[in-house]
């Protein structure tokens, strides 16, 4: 793994609630980046969106963060970060990327400094790259007028990079060739494929929960228990 | 599952309400046969979807699910030993209150037709209902057993045999469609399955299952005993894909229960070598049925 560029994957979204499909995005993306031989994925961050995003049926961030935390109990490389959800306002994804990037740089071990005993053993640490992880549907929304600012899309693909996990019914390459910006920075866009079709969208999950149907094996057991305990996604509160 | 919970809490008055509410419903046990090589979240979803559907009809009450992994003599390519497949299925159902693993089929020396596995489980239920004729979630609690039996016999002695649960075969659309593959199934077995037991088949919305039933005279005749359940959330976690991912060193996390993943890794179960097992060997049913056809 020596000489590889360390990468941290950041996923933004509602996570309302988190499903096994969201978790799969991380696993598939990591496998894909490792296979390139160029990258070493050293961490994953899930950042649930702020309540002020005002999406229909969005339950309180406090619950969404708690559910992600439960879902990640057994992952040794992905963590939840509540920073975005704790801001006073909704913020653009690019700003979330900037925040986490500066956090990453700040946490880097210094190669020179007062701590001489440590600096000897440390090779100049490679600066980790922060990449936005998303599903095919997000890549598609880059084409939706007014949803994204062009300069933000450009910053995401130019400064950070994108790892997009495709699935059946989505033409990722088509989405890229349909956008001049994406096309220009396509060397910074990694397309991974989920070999196992699964469409466990959170929308479907909420529908099933509202109808009293079982969602077992679509979400981690701990998340299902949390939803029950807090009576989330019942018909009346959505 | 408020009904079972009420029964477990056990006040007689509640039990009475419970029996009255359900007196019209048929108790059902869902049996899934297959390789489970390895068991995936999709297999487990079949049970959840089928139970919701059957209970939702108002006519049935699903009281149990049984996973019956096929025996090694089935000779399917890449089939690893039943010992491991059973343990993985048990790990996968550890957190389920109603689905369990049965080893009878897997312990047979020769491959057993699915119709016979159904018969075995139906007979077993009949035998146990001779002593206590109510649903198993209650009976499984040793402390409740005697009380419940006394209660039932006192109040409804005449219902002794009427209430034996019905075993139904649970399957995916691929199994239903495999009924059309020559020599894979004996036609009399297909009739047995749909006439005597019944089929609960989970299919993708817009799949050809309905058409398949329509185009088969036998299936059409017993279509009241064939329940097609729509799976709205597409999920295609086939065991074949899991094994392929494992061979390529790809993550299978969140596709199979975590305990199953850990077990596979610990015992290094699926490799290019294991995939070659039974390569070039005829599947047991094909072998048996094509010989029968010639005779």
TrEMBL record, chain A:
Presence of the UniProt keyword DNA-binding in the record: no
Pathway this chain belongs to: Cofactor biosynthesis; NAD(+) biosynthesis; deamido-NAD(+) from nicotinate D-ribonucleotide: step 1/1; Cofactor biosynthesis; NAD(+) biosynthesis; NAD(+) from nicotinamide D-ribonucleotide: step 1/1
GO molecular function: ATP binding; nicotinamide-nucleotide adenylyltransferase activity; nicotinate-nucleotide adenylyltransferase activity
Reactions it catalyzes: nicotinate beta-D-ribonucleotide + ATP + H(+) = deamido-NAD(+) + diphosphate; beta-nicotinamide D-ribonucleotide + ATP + H(+) = diphosphate + NAD(+)
One Pfam family per UniProt: CTP_transf_like
Residues in Cytidyltransferase-like domain copies: 10-207
Gene Ontology terms: cellular component: mitochondrial matrix
Listed GO biological process terms: NAD+ biosynthetic process
Keywords of the record: ATP-binding, Mitochondrion, NAD, Nucleotide-binding, Nucleotidyltransferase, Pyridine nucleotide biosynthesis, Transferase
Co-factor requirement: Mg(2+)
Superkingdom of origin organism: Eukaryota
Entry's localization field: Mitochondrion
Entry-linked CDD domains: NMNAT_Eukarya (cd09286)
Entry-linked InterPro entries: Cyt_trans-like (IPR004821), Euk_NMN_adenylyltrnsfrase (IPR051182), NadD/NMNAT (IPR005248), NMNAT_euk (IPR045094), Rossmann-like_a/b/a_fold (IPR014729)
Main location: mitochondrion
EC number: 2.7.7.1, 2.7.7.18
Coiled-coil region(s): none
PANTHER family per the UniProt record, alphabetical: NICOTINAMIDE MONONUCLEOTIDE ADENYLYLTRANSFERASE, NICOTINAMIDE_NICOTINIC ACID MONONUCLEOTIDE ADENYLYLTRANSFERASE 3
Subunit (UniProt): Homotetramer.
Its biological purpose: Catalyzes the formation of NAD(+) from nicotinamide mononucleotide (NMN) and ATP. Can also use the deamidated form; nicotinic acid mononucleotide (NaMN) as substrate with the same efficiency. Can use triazofurin monophosphate (TrMP) as substrate. Can also use GTP and ITP as nucleotide donors. Also catalyzes the reverse reaction, i.e. the pyrophosphorolytic cleavage of NAD(+). For the pyrophosphorolytic activity, can use NAD(+), NADH, NaAD, nicotinic acid adenine dinucleotide phosphate (NHD), nicotinamide guanine dinucleotide (NGD) as substrates.
Family according to the record: Belongs to the eukaryotic NMN adenylyltransferase family.
Descriptive protein name: Nicotinamide-nucleotide adenylyltransferase
Underlying gene: NMNAT3
Automatic annotation (TrEMBL), chain B:
Cellular component GO terms, alphabetical: nucleus
Cofactor(s) in the UniProt record: Zn(2+); Mg(2+)
Pfam family, one: CTP_transf_like
Keyword entries, A-Z: ATP-binding, Magnesium, NAD, Nucleotide-binding, Nucleotidyltransferase, Nucleus, Phosphoprotein, Pyridine nucleotide biosynthesis, Transferase, Zinc
A biological process term (GO) from this entry: NAD+ biosynthetic process
The reaction(s) this protein catalyses: beta-nicotinamide D-ribonucleotide + ATP + H(+) = diphosphate + NAD(+); nicotinate beta-D-ribonucleotide + ATP + H(+) = deamido-NAD(+) + diphosphate
Nucleotide-binding keyword on record: yes
Major subcellular site: nucleus
Ranges of residues in domain Cytidyltransferase-like: 31-244
Keyword Lyase recorded: no
Pathway in which this enzyme or protein is active: Cofactor biosynthesis; NAD(+) biosynthesis; deamido-NAD(+) from nicotinate D-ribonucleotide: step 1/1; Cofactor biosynthesis; NAD(+) biosynthesis; NAD(+) from nicotinamide D-ribonucleotide: step 1/1
E.C. number(s) listed in UniProt: 2.7.7.1, 2.7.7.18
GO molecular function, one term: nicotinate-nucleotide adenylyltransferase activity
Location in the cell: Nucleus
Family from the record: Belongs to the eukaryotic NMN adenylyltransferase family.
Assembly and oligomerization: Homohexamer. Interacts with ADPRT/PARP1.
Protein name as catalogued: Nicotinamide-nucleotide adenylyltransferase
Organism: Hipposideros armiger (Great Himalayan leaf-nosed bat)
The encoding gene: NMNAT1
């Amino acid at each position: 793994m020596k000489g590889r560029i360390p990468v941290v994957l950041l996923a933004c979204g509602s996570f309302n609630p988190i499903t096994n499909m969201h978790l799969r995005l991380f696993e598939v993306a990591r496998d894909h980046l490792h296979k390139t031989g160029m990258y070493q994925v050293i961490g994953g961050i899930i950042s649930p969106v702020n309540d002020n995003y005002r999406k229909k049926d969005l339950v309180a961030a406090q619950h969404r963060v708690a559910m992600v935390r439960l879902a990640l109990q057994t992952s040794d490389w992905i963590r939840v970060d509540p920073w975005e959800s704790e801001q006073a306002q909704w913020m653009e994804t690019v700003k979330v990327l900037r925040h986490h990037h500066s956090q990453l740089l700040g946490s880097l071990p210094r190669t020179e400094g007062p701590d001489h005993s440590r600096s000897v053993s440390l090779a100049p640490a490679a600066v980790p790259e922060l990449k936005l992880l998303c599903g095919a549907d997000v890549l598609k929304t880059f084409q939706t007028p007014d949803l994204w600012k062009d300069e933000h899309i450009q910053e995401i693909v130019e400064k950070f990079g994108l790892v997009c996990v495709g699935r059946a019914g989505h033409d990722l390459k088509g989405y890229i060739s349909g956008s001049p910006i994406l096309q220009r920075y396509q060397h910074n866009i990694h397309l991974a494929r989920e070999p196992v079709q699964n469409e466990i969208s959170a929308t479907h999950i909420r529908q099933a929960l509202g109808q009293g149907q079982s969602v077992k094996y679509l979400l981690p057991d701990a998340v299902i228990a949390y939803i029950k305990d807090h009576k989330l996604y019942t018909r009346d509160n959505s | 599952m408020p009904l079972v919970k009420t029964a477990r809490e056990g006040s007689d008055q509640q039990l009475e309400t419970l029996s009255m509410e359900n007196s019209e419903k048929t108790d059902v046990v869902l049996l899934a046969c297959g390789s489970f090589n390895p068991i995936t979240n999709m297999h487990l979803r079949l049970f959840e979807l089928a139970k919701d559907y059957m209970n939702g009809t108002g006519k049935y009450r699903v009281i149990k699910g049984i996973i019956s992994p096929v025996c090694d003599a089935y000779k399917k390519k890449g089939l690893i030993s039943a010992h491991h497949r059973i343990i993985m299925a048990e790990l996968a159902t550890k957190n389920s209150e109603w689905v369990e693993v049965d080893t009878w089929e897997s312990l047979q020396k020769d491959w057993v037709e699915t119709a016979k596995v159904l018969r075995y489980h139906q007979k077993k239920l009949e035998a146990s209902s001779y002593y206590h004729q109510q649903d198993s979630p209650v009976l499984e609690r040793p402390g409740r057993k005697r009380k419940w039996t006394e209660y039932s016999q006192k109040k409804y002695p005449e219902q002794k045999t009427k209430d034996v649960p019905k075993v139904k075969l649970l399957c995916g659309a691929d199994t239903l469609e495999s009924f059309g593959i020559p020599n894979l199934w004996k036609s009399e077995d297909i009739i047995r399955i749909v006439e005597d037991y019944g089929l609960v088949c989970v299919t993708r919305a817009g799949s050809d299952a309905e058409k398949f039933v329509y185009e088969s005279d036998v299936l059409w005749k017993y279509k009241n005993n064939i329940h097609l359940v729509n799976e709205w959330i597409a999920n295609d976690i086939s065991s074949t894909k899991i094994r392929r991912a494992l061979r390529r060193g790809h993550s299978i996390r969140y596709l199979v229960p975590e305990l199953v993943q850990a077990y596979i890794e610990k015992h290094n179960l699926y490799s290019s070598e294991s995939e070659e097992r039974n390569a070039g060997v005829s599947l047991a049913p094909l072998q048996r049925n094509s010989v029968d056809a010639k005779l």
